Fold these 4 entries.
Entry 1:
Amino acid sequence: MEISTVNYLGNLSTECTHKSGCKITTDAPIDNFGKGAAFSPTDLMATSLASCFITIVGIYCQQHSIPFEHCTAKVEKIMSSAPRKIERINIRFDFSGNNWDDITLKKAIAAGKTCPVHLTLEGNVEIEYIFN
């Protein structure tokens, strides 16, 4: 099933249109000949990991009647140069606004680590999760 269309805008930028009509613009990063004016494709991949993790935690919480109203994730992406690829992704999660006990937090984290993006990247990219 087709999910999106990507059009080249010139000057190392693209416009990505989801089948829903939602649009994202990308730009090459400053360290790779771009302006860094938008997410780079590798920024989207790293950010997708955090978004997917949070989404799976949300699904887990819905299925177990656990209140889930707060999460912030700060994403860091580290590139290697030879070959140029994502070497490492560090994500710092803050779930503190949910007032979960330690058992609930551990179960939510375990659920999040089953997200499809994590499973796709696991073994290919170093991933570090930090939880507050």
Note: Residues 1-39 form one domain.
Entry 2:
Amino acid sequence: MTPEQSAWFAETFDALVDNVGLALLGKEQTIRLALTAMVAEGHILLEDAPGTGKTSLAKALSATVQGTHHRIQFTPDLLPSDVTGVTIYDQGTQRFEFHPGPVFASVVLADEINRASPKTQAALLEVMEEGNVTVDGVTHPVGRPFMVIATQNPIEQAGTYRLPEAQLDRFLLKTSLGYPDRASSIEILAGARDRTTSLTARITTQAVGTMADLAASVHVEEAVLDYIARLIEATREDGRAALGASVRGGLALVRCAKVWAASCGREFVIPDDVKELAQPVLAHRIILDSEAEFAGVTQAEVVARVLETVAPPTVRAA
């Protein structure tokens, strides 16, 4: 990435954040994380109470990048074909035709993913990992960009199917929106309308692909890679964790740090980028020991402790 390209990347990224922020007031940090996941070509899991703007985030993102948006309400009776699509025989043409499911969109909101059966959850997670759908032996790519924003409701657990830890590991980031501050709440109440309908696209979906390719070329010093490796190892060695972050978690942290660095106008990653992203990237990948979980310890606390104990590099490697 050249200095001119990094300047364009940072300017474009800020413009996207500002545009989404017109619909989602007071949530700049979460918007930046969501856009980081999109440019890193990953997916995000939101665990939040109802009515905090999860649907607005998905709609605003798709409108900002001139993409398409589909929402899937996950229920216990939802079938995998309801998500991916189905092949139907057309008597007129005497041929089988594929009817795409709602997963074929730039931004897919998987609302309350933990309410669907494990089989349906697995169908969506397979598309997230592979980037295509295979029905009756025929592969159908979902396109680029493709991002899933999955939500979980933390307050109603009756009739839900908890995502297995191995499947949680498939999400690049996990975060929450939370309630807006009072000033933003007043502005939202004064408008009393869907702000996403008035958004205009700032870039095309093809430009998002260009940003993804540029971010992938951001340089990561060996000392920073060593820092990430030590952080990952420290989560495994923490006595409160039954299972620490995986290698996939380390790769996810590198991918996100590259995008974060580019969004700051840099062609290289610094330790502060890693620190900023460690909690949303690593926390959901850690499985707590039963005693620690009973004592009220959280995954975020484990990551915070690791960041305190593992020293970042202070000089460049030779």
Note: DSSP finds 13 helices and eleven strands in the chain.
Entry 3:
Amino acid sequence: MAAHPLERRWIVISVLLVTAMGGLIVATASLHGLHPPSNVETIDSTRLHLTPEFAEDHLGVERAKDGTVVVRLVMARYMVHPQEITLPADTPIVLRVASADVLHGLHVPGTNIGTQVVPGYVAEVRTTIRFDSAAKIGTPNADGSVTLPLFCNEYCGLGHQSMWGRVRVTRP
């Protein structure tokens, strides 16, 4: 059965459009350093505060022996612990986040930090924050640093609007 030339033309156009959109998605993800989560690590959300890593006195920012900055956060209705963290720009950062109760979303505008935090799993994001990008979005501070909002972008209940925190980005 022969296809009409007009039908063939529209088939070619639609295939080219789908190919172009797929290429744009791959190019954008590559240019912005986006990648799907690859770490699958389980944790008991009901005993989160009893674990060595996510106990309250171990949350926050620490520098590893190799120079990487490791951040540990816990998201729970309706708060982020700790509520403010300070991160150096142009330094490798590993964010490790766990949920104590329901599905949450972690997002920091001006960076490529964005992930879902699923109860029972540790969400891990590896990134490097560029100061210039953060400065475009954030609020400048007197000491030359920039403050960015950190918030939950996944509806988690009636107090969802109260789930926020701050990320202070310092110059390298």
Note: Residues 1-31 form one domain.
Entry 4:
Amino acid sequence: MYTLKKTLLIIDDEPAIRLILEHYFASEYDVVLTANGQEALDWLHQGHAADAIVADYEMPRLNGLDFIRALRALPAYESVPLLMLSGTDETSKKIGCLRAGADDYLVKPFNPEELEIRIQKVLARVSV
């Protein structure tokens, strides 16, 4: 039986992080990579859809917090699972992201397996 892969949108300005995550998740997901929040919004506005989104906090053009706000303002994306990655463990940034609509927040460096489990958990909750 053939099942379609879910689409995972990864937003990070660090090419190495994008490459690692693409390699790690490619067997389970259709992975789409963008370098900043504005590129990601442009991709979504073109009619594409993501089943889950992983976004960096510190990015040029449109940072993670502004991306969350812009994403959650769009009715079609108000409930798409969104996990944030950040190089800082600053509590105020974590709280700001979670209040703005992020579903989870991981600090870099992180274990891709932990990220995978968190994505699976949030996807299981929204598909019920």
Note: The longest strand covers residues 6-11.
